[in-house]
Amino acid sequence: MKKLVIAKRASQFFFLCLFVYILWSTTYPLKGLLPADTFFKINPLILFITSLSERKLLTGVYFASGMLYLSLILGRFFCGWVCPLGAIIDLCGAIRKKGGLSEYLDGFKPHYIKYFILAIISIFALIGIQAAWIFDPMVIMARFVSLNLIPSITYLMNSFFIVIIKYFNIGGPIYDFYRSLKGSILGINIYYFSNSFVIFVFFLFICATTFFAARFWCRSACPLGALYALISKKALLTRVVKECEACGKCISCCRMGAIKDGKNYDKSECILCMDCVYDCPEHATQFMFRKHIAPSEHDKKEGISRRSFLMILGSFFFMAGFGKFRWVHKKNCVIRPPASLKEDDFLNRCIRCGNCMKVCITNGLQPAALEAGPRGIWTPRLIPEIGYCEYNCTLCGEVCPTAAIKKLSLNEKRKVKLGTAEIDKSICIAWKDNKECIVCEEHCPIPEKAIKLIGEIADNKRIYKPVVNEYLCTGCGICQNKCPVRPARAIKVNPEIADRL
Question: Pairing mode, if any, of strands 237-241 and 285-289?
């Protein structure tokens, strides 16, 4: 039996399920066994790059450093045994036909690309721009799970039970079972997320690359894999081959292209999949710990050295300067979640993981397209027409893995200003038509009422018309959400005056 391969697959399955469970169980009220940012705290790429771009050490850096220390011992084990996106890519690779473009990759060394991607991300961080979110595998996976997978499965399962119960008139135990699911995995509201199709296509493209060559994304484009590869060059766990007959089976089975000839391999590219151990007809391959091993000829020629990587990075350092580049934002153009950092810091700190959008109980937080500029793509913005900021909710700050949204107590959050509501008297029912409409005032959650009514005599009768107290208004958007005027709302939140920490 392929015990090591089975153990590796079991590990991948476990961590993939744990990853999905953590995101799925993070809802209102918080009841998950593990915090939503668990996997992000052990992600050295996100934490180091974000810390560098912000010039501030983030919480969790020590856990991420621990993963790098483990890589010094075990090698690039995270990619093969833990990474949830790697598990999905392996699953897609299992249905791929042998061959693909692998045979054409011998002359082309795609594994160099990921080092240049890591260098570029690091250079951007030096000038104060955090771009790790674009290529980080756990962010990509979290965004897909939160904004595509969970809403789709929840919608399909709800629709299935509704059809069975309502249209086929089947109740009893099935209805009881459905109600039990509504209290657990189906307890999440059915969500709509703008730009979710683009997010899905991006994820699908990454998975589709495995049909060209096994683990093509991991070996060529993943910057987190590049970071682990740099550390794993000196790992204590190594591949040892005895009495090799040069049959070439280990070369053809290696999904990372790490083996070029029977005895020599590129340790930085090996993800410990263990296929070569069992595909060797002579059973001459094994992995063991050794303290002193001379580097093979292949190690000397292949891959990229840490010195080379640092030279690539250092060549741009003085161009980047030691200071942090600051963008000038004239005004806030979108409504951000409560207690968000100032726009420039927020764009650097936010990794677009989708946690805050997934837990928003009104579905008001949506991924931005270009509303906040190119740097704001897929960052969270509040769209009151879809959902408002719930007065008694602090979830977005609690699940943010990088503190781009500050964690506040409920009393603190209730005082945070997202913007100020403004009434367009030219279309407001009460102001334009002199008709009774107090919807916005009724729904205002502020105890002192940030929207008050003033009485005016019109058509020989007293009409009460709404006015906004800008000092009390927190810009939660519920008035805009409930306003009956269509298509444009008669009251809208202006985000220009907001509390950005």
Answer: antiparallel
Q: Are 31 and 85 contained in the same domain?
A: yes
Q: Are residues 348 and 297 in the same domain?
A: no
Residue 391 lies in a domain: yes
Q: Among 5, 3, 1, 83, which Cα is nearest to 274's?
A: 5
Q: Report the b/e string of 308-320 with b at 16+ CB within 10 A.
A: ebeebbeeeeeeb
Q: Assess whether 7 and 66 both reside in one domain.
A: yes
For 162-171, 202-211, 261-270, which range has the lowest pLDDT when averaged over its residues? 162-171
d(C-alpha 250, C-alpha 241), whole Å:
11
Mean pLDDT value across residues 417-440: 92
Q: For residue range 293-348, list pLDDT tens digits in order.
A: 445 544 444 455 555 555 555 544 444 444 555 555 556 789 999 989 998 889 98
What's the domain range around 56? 3-141+200-237+245-318
Could you tell me if residue 326 is left (phi over 0), alpha (psi between -120 and 50 degrees) or otherwise beta?
A: beta
468 in the same domain as 415: yes
